[in-house]
Amino acid sequence: MPRKLRIGFVSRYPPVHCGIGEYTRMLAEALASVAGDMLSIKVFSTTEAGRDPYTLNGVEVVPSYERGAASYSRLLDVLAEHGGVDVLHLQHEFGIYGDTPAIIEALLEARAERLTRAAVATLHTVYHPRGVEKGLETRLSLYERSFLLDSIVVHSVLQEFELASQGAPLERLHRIPHGTSINSYVETPRQKLIELLGLPGELQRARVLAVPGFLRRDKGLATLLEAFSKVDDPAARLVVAGEPQGRGSEEVARLLEEYEAREPRLVVLRRYLSSREVLYLSALADLIVLPYEDRPGKYSVSGILHLSMGSLKPIVGTRVPRLVELYQLAPRMVVRPRSPGELAAKIRWVLQNYDETIPYMGQVYSYAVRTMWPRMARRHLSLYQSLLAAS
Question: Whole-model pTM?
Answer without folding.
Answer: 0.93
